[in-house]
Recover the amino acids of this structure.
């Protein structure tokens, strides 16, 4: 029992260290791109470069994990938010919850999302394919929410949802390039404006087009 | 006169070479990021690395010019499209022309726009500030089009246009990350869907929200 407990404690400390390395890696990859110095990542995490190699065997596995975790944590939060919607809610309401969660998580895990855009084009084919599959899964999930609202007659029937989904991800992903929490606007305002623009449209409802 | 003509011809050949280098640089920076090898850029342009240095004195001036040209050509095309709208057009119509032109040019000058996102975080403070000023100018121009349509009562009055403008740029800029002309959808479809989503909104007009 003492051994188990020690292992559990060690494991959990190791997990925390791992998380600290990944947070640091996301921040440094975001700033320096794929060619980021691993010593800078180690320094950011407050450890020796050698200790970093104990957890990750090199740049590529670190990049792969930053990419995976960025999408996974966003996807997890969206799914949790959607699953918390009371049964019987309209598909449009569920969609709105999903979009709000997706936009909010992007603003929260900014380093991961920004690092993603920065390093993705430089990764190996194996990492790219794996990551692409996870991104597809997340995108398909969002597209299913859109489709359900179309089927319910709540969204327009003339939409090309595969394109809409990417435009929507674009508006959300790009927030990491310009949004700074210290410049007067809360993340909530950005999320609200996104939902207003995407779902309601900018054109005034009084205006006959 | 003969001298003037010769100078003009030499100038124009030099201009073409310069353009070829920049197109190549945009492509290679897009693929390899800020750390791209200048020899790869020279090879892509079909010249020796030494000749490249005749036109640009190094990585930073090449990056700066790729950044500048990417925004400038987009901005020029948007302005031209807007100025070609017949006098007396409604602000909303002018806005739509501007957004269509902005989205279309992004899909056309994909290498420049994608290189922009890739290298911008790594440039020196001087280049960053210069580039930021040009981007601001372009963004302000788009925001003025939005504001005019708000003032005319054609767009909703409750919008935070400084946020809307960035979300709109996000949806447009991100197309370079996913849109491939060879995958069945024309650029026109993407532009149409963007305008439909942003101006009209996804929610069906029959739906009471």
């Amino acid at each position: 029992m003492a051994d188990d407990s020690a292992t559990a404690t060690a494991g959990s400390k190791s997990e925390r260290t791992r998380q600290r390395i990944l947070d640091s890696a996301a921040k440094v990859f975001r700033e320096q791109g794929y060619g980021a110095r691993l010593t800078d990542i180690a320094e950011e995490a407050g450890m020796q470069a050698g200790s970093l190699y104990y957890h990750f065997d090199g740049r590529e596995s670190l990049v792969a994990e930053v990419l995976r975790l960025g999408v996974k944590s966003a996807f997890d939060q969206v799914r949790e938010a959607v699953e918390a919607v009371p049964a019987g809610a309209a598909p449009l309401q569920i969609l709105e919850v999903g979009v709000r969660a997706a936009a909010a998580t992007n603003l929260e895990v900014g380093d991961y999302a920004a690092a993603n855009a920065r390093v993705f084009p430089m990764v190996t084919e194996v990492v790219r394919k794996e990551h692409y599959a996870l991104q597809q899964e997340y995108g398909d999930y969002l597209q299913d929410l859109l489709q359900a609202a179309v089927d319910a007659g709540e969204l327009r029937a003339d939409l090309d949802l595969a394109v809409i989904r990417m435009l929507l991800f674009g508006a959300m992903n790009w927030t990491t390039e310009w949004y700074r929490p210290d410049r007067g606007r809360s993340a909530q305002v950005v999320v609200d404006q996104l939902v207003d623009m995407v779902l309601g449209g900018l054109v005034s409802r009084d205006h006959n087009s």
The radius of gyration of chain A is 20 Å. Residues 1-8 of chain A have pLDDT under 50 and may be disordered.
